[in-house]
Amino acid sequence: MHTNYYFLRQLAPALDIQLAGLRFVECFSQDRDEVVLVFAQAKGRLNYYKPFYIKATLRPDFSGLLFPERVQRARTNSIDLFEEVINPVRTHEHDQLASNVAEEATANRPGRAVVSVRFFLNERCLAILLEDHYTLLFKFFGNRPNLLAFHENAVIDLFNQKLAADQQLVLDAFDRPIDQSWEAFVRAEFDYRKLFPTFGRVVNEWISQQKAGREEKIGPQEEWEIIQQTLRQLEQPRYYLTRLNHRPTLSLVPLGEIQREFDNPIEAANRFFISYNGLNIFEREKGDLLRLLEKRRKRAESLIEVNLQRMIDREDGTSHEEIGHILMANLHDIPKGSGTKSPETVTLVDFYRDQPITIRLKPDLSPQKNAENYYRKAKNEKLEADYLTAQVTAREEEIIRLDRQKTDLEAIQTLKELRRYTKQYNLLGDQPGKGINEDGTIQLFKEVTVDNFRILIGRNARNNDLLTQKYAYKDDLWLHARDVAGSHVIIKHQAGKPFPKNVIERAAELAAWYSKRRTDSLCPVIVTPKKFVRKPKGLAEGQVIVEKESSILVVPKE
């Protein structure tokens, strides 16, 4: 929660007190993802009274603020930033006098005075307002953190130039009003996350624990009261340095393995920052693996629950074989449709349960052919029942294996032993990429490599279009779950090499998983060369026409 809206709301007034009477006198970077801001009562160039430092780390995988007592600037490999914001006098090439004045001002480096520090409504941003309508804004948006400089309402400079879209941001648009009333909760069908997107992972987990702690199942009114109690706690919090999901966490609620408590948000931010970034490689890799195993265990539990529910529904309902028998036993009672065809529905006596049953029929088939169709479905039904049973058994065995591996990991004490165990049991497998390249830029598509073949997966409808229309070539293989919304999947062609069967099957499993058929037992997947996929004008985002195709039946698998 160190960049959560509710923490930044507490941090802003604390920083406002610290920066009162100071000027923004220096800004530099000596690391690709780190920027240092210096505020002080300036006497001259690099000669300050009472300096206050803010060190911001702005990596895609981690962003946060540290407020150190002092920062030693390196003599080499550092660069000055945000000169226009620091220097009140601008140079003009055509005006030598103005240029001389600017150089003198730069030499003295007086800086701009701090006016105030503010947060933004329901947003993960913190702003330092300076004189002359300048603003420094820390933007903590997921894997796109940045530091931006505004003059009045427009961006004039930014730290991470690769985030080009940040140039279009407007300062007045950061506040995000949200109706968070009981009436809005009702309209949202009692899904509080739609009203409070700023809660984040830690607060949502806290609320889940509060709900689970009640003796009886709670209703909307009780859940709303828990939310209101949580909001009151977030407005006047204590700050907890805790360990949650195997990593240091700054929390505004008492959750996880609490290590220290604080009253001051600046001190809490410092202790968390040091604790998080003080983790060594062994601790990071071990924590990542433990979280991965726990995620897989939750997924296995969820799949067991889904499959068991399907088995229960099948036992409670009328089977296709029973419907076929009912139709055959009542052929003479089925009214005629057009000619020898059938009506769309028919109500007959279910002699298994001694009650009426309404059966859907295909009007273009005779009653007897409809019965044969239900018998054919019954064969698949038996196969699916066997499959569901096998899946439940397999997932139960997977949970046992995951629990054993978690116990083994917790006992490992060295990085060498950890990596040997990871490789021995292939704990990482062929998981899709996390969306971040090695240079910190964002991956356009999810990506998996199987036997040296690259499999690319679209992230959403617009991203699907980008993948299929711009990044796929005619000889690449294109896959998509049949008849449902889902990701476009591409297997990149390799000259002179046919697509291996196991690679196609793996890509089909991914296409099934990243679709609306994710929870199905079996999913049909379209497989075709990209050259048979086209997008005429007028189709919605993500929609295409497939001119020639084959299909494969697979189990959805992440």
Automatic annotation (TrEMBL):
GO biological process: rescue of stalled ribosome
GO molecular function, one term: ribosomal large subunit binding
The organism's taxonomic lineage, starting at the top: Bacteria, Pseudomonadati, Bacteroidota, Cytophagia, Cytophagales
NFACT RNA-binding domain sequence ranges: 446-547
Regions annotated as coiled coil: none
Domain of life: Bacteria
Protein source organism: Spirosoma endbachense
TM ranges: none
A cellular-component GO term for this protein: RQC complex
Matching Pfam families: NFACT-R_1, NFACT_N
Protein name: DUF814 domain-containing protein
Signal peptide: none
